[in-house]
Design goal:
Blueprint: H1 3-8, H2 22-31, E1 39-43, E2 51-55, H3 60-69, E3 73-82, E4 87-100, E5 103-108, E6 114-115, E7 120-128, E8 134-143, H4 144-157, E9 161-164
Length: 170
Amino acid sequence: MGLFDIFTGVKRPPADRAPAPADDLRQALLAVNRESAPFRVVPCDDDRCDFVAEWRIVDARWYEIFAKAGLKKVFRVKMRLDEARHELRAVEEEYSVEWRAGVPHLSLAASGFRGRKSEVSFGTAYAFTEELRPGQVYKYRFNSAELKKPLQEAALGAGWTWRPVAFGKL
């Protein structure tokens, strides 16, 4: 790994790992999904990317936790497979969250952020529980690395390079 890769966030597979076919990487990205994760990986619904990984902020099972966490910003990772170079190109986009009656409303952040970002939110709350005793009501930790790391591992495991993109074409 070169100094340039460290600064840009590029992650390369081991030199002895041959790149797998693109379909194998597609399956590996979708395999990152699990019911207990606060994020999901899905195919893009437009031509601007191949996959998107995003926090489950609009999922009814999760948005109460996100609302209690007081999240004001969330981000998602859009990905495109570059089959010629065996690269998974990724761009991160930040969104502002406005809570209306406990339901999230997403809008693009005024800052217009696009590039690489690390973010961590955590907290806990104590109150009287159902047993009428003080106890922990909820505990959360949202770390952008929790979303990016499994995607990077899927790419590297398939012998593909993970290439963050800030200014170029996805």
